[in-house]
Amino acid sequence: MYPLQCSEACDRGVMYRNVTCVDTQMNGTAVHDEYCLREGLSRRKSSRRCNKHPCPFRWVTTPWSECSKVCGAGIETRESSCHAINNLGWVDPQPVTRGCDDAKKPRNTRKCNLGHCNLGYYWKVKPWKPCQAECGKRGVQRRGVNCINTESQRVNRSLCATEHRPRKKQKCRAQPCGYSTCSEAQSVLRVTVDGEYSLLVGGHNMSIFCLGMNTSSPKEYLTLPAGEEGNFAEIYNQILNDPDTCPHEEERRTNCDCRQNESSHSGYTSFSKIRLNTTSLVVDTYDFTFARAVDGHLVRYGEAGDCFSMALCPQGAFSINLAGTALAVSPRTNWITRGTNAAHYINRLDDNQRILGRCGGYCGTCNPDPVTGLKLMLRDG
């Protein structure tokens, strides 16, 4: 038996091997399979499944449209986009521009024909029913396929051309079981008390704080076990008297030759919980429900800045610490600078569970790129 490589690097593949009957009395010489079968030896499998873990990116398609013609040759269309996928099979709803193999991009058009126009009888399809499978497993989904006449009346299916009959069933994967939002938990559990609930986030059940469970639109918040000391955002309130310099090799000191910048929107804000979209895993950095303005104005989560220096000497700081949760900051989250003489340094620690940032300028800030936002991901393992 000689094992070969898996046919796919990820997702479901097949590994093939040669299975040969050999004569142990003749130094392993290959003989006809009949000799092994006569001895009552069952033939070993020549292939098996392999690499069942999902690929990090996958093409996702919308359902095919209805055929453009009720009879005769027509066209069906669909959209396809590339999406990130984690090791639990959770597909990120936000498409990405890179990651998928363009050579494997699904086709977006195909020919269709629901029957011969001169016969007066055509196939009519109904929408697909939900996938018939247990939570998160593969199964089959079905749809109704009926034969109709020109008055859209259902008739005996033998009147329609069998070669044009659409498929009645297809393979599918059921959605993982659990509540994805506080609204779902509220509806199913019939609860009205705010608190921690187990929600399905990124394909994994985790504790999420639900606020407003006695209202029609409760909200989801991620509790931060690292606390306020590890989760803060700051617009530094000092400005150098000589802004062309960067003293002390960028080290911040309380005895610097500075003055307070009265005109800036400076402030220091700490966070104990952050608002999280449990579907897209994007943090709402404008939500300050569980934030505290320790000093000055409220500063957004993941933001920092100052008006300290023109010499690329940032002093404003932010800290994101997701230790104790099942989440980390996605590598797709990037920070961009705004303002004059802006500079920023982003330090990613502990596999992106901790992010430390220094940002500033004259005046300058940094924020998560609004295109992606402050996006989180489920940690591996």
TrEMBL record:
GO terms classed as biological process: extracellular matrix organization; proteolysis
Molecular function via GO: metalloendopeptidase activity; zinc ion binding
This protein's record includes keyword Acyltransferase: no
SMART domains linked: TSP1
Domain annotation GON: ranges: 178-379
Subcellular location: Secreted
InterPro entries linked: ADAMTS_ADAMTS-like, Pept_M12B_GON-ADAMTSs, TSP1_rpt, TSP1_rpt_sf
Gene Ontology cellular-component annotations: extracellular matrix; extracellular region
Keywords linked to the UniProt accession: Metal-binding, Repeat, Secreted, Signal
Main location: secreted
Pfam families: GON (PF08685), TSP1_ADAMTS (PF19030)
PANTHER family in alphabetical order: ADAMTS A DISINTEGRIN AND METALLOPROTEASE WITH THROMBOSPONDIN MOTIFS PROTEASE (PTHR13723), PAPILIN (PTHR13723:SF281)
Listed name of the protein: GON domain-containing protein
